Amino acid sequence: MKQSKPGAGKPIFLLSLVTLLTVFGLWFASSNAYTFLKGYLLFKTGQVEAEAYEESNIAEIQSKGEQVEEVQDAPLYPVRPEEGENIGDLIIPKLEAKLPIYHGTDEDELAKGVGHYAGSVLPGENDNSILSGHRDTVFRKLGEVGKGDLLVVITAAGEFTYKVRNVRIVDADDRTVIVPKPKATLTLSTCYPFDFIGNAPERYILVADLVSTK
Q1: Does the active-site annotation cover 103?
Q2: I want to staple 67 with a disulfide (CB 3.0 to 4.6 A). Which of 2, 111, 164, 209 is the partner?
Q3: Closest residue by Cα to residue 207 from 194, 188, 192, 191
Q4: 116 catalytic, yes or no?
Q5: Choice among 191, 206, 208, 211 that is catalytic
């Protein structure tokens, strides 16, 4: 009777393992799991970076209850950004999160961070500046942010701090989210409910007024 040589089964085992890992890698890279993990890591990295934001600045700004009167003699952004361009960072002190903002709200931008709705003004400008993000990645804890909390946007034009004035839950097709505003406003939007599986039917909206510029 012919006996198999010791270790003869190892090449077959290794080949099977490599094949299994390759198939898993292809599935992972093409599925929502990849997007979720990338967004989760982005959120966690942002938490570390945002810890450097001084608490004294937050306390000072929170003591201000009135919206600043924004007078813009010269344009804040002489050159308008291109689609897909990184235009700054969004800091959410309540979540200790710092997230990159990209101009545009296509999936390419939302996969990398927070998207700026190209049809709205840029942060710091008068009117309504709209930012969107996925509820299961960069905005996974946005439900913890509410009235009175701060939102800070840092761009090439400066540092703009907004205080949340209103929290809304609206239908996914509600167009009142993007209407013009008489003063500098920041609107954050994400899908809702946060634990909904599939295409969520509603949107969680934060409406914030500009209270400080640097």
Answers
A1: no
A2: 209
A3: 188
A4: no
A5: 191
Q: How far is CA 101 from the centre of its chain?
A: 7
Distance CA 83, CA 107 (A): 12
Query: Does the CA dihedral 54-58-63-67 come out positive or negative?
Result: positive
Please report the pLDDT score of residue 21 as a whole number. 60
201 prior amide bond cis, ω within 30: no
Tell me: the pLDDT tens digits for 24-54? 555 444 445 555 555 556 655 555 456 556 5
Q: Which CATH architecture fits 12-65+85-213?
A: Beta Barrel (2.40)
What is the pTM assigned to this prediction?
0.74
Question: For residues 87 and 161, what is the distance between their CA atoms, to the nearest angstrom?
Answer: 16
Out of 98, 134, 135, 163, the active site residue is 134
Q: What is the DSSP string of the chain?
A: -PPPPTTTTHHHHHHHHHHHHHHHHHHHHTSHHHHHHHHHHHHHHHHHHHTTS-HHHHHHHHT--S------SS-S-SSPPPTT-EEEEEEEGGGTEEEEEEEB-SHHHHTTSEEE-TTSPPTTSSSEEEEE--TTTTTTTGGG--TT-EEEEEETTEEEEEEEEEEEEEETT-GGGG---SS-EEEEEEEESTT--SS-SEEEEEEEEEEEE-
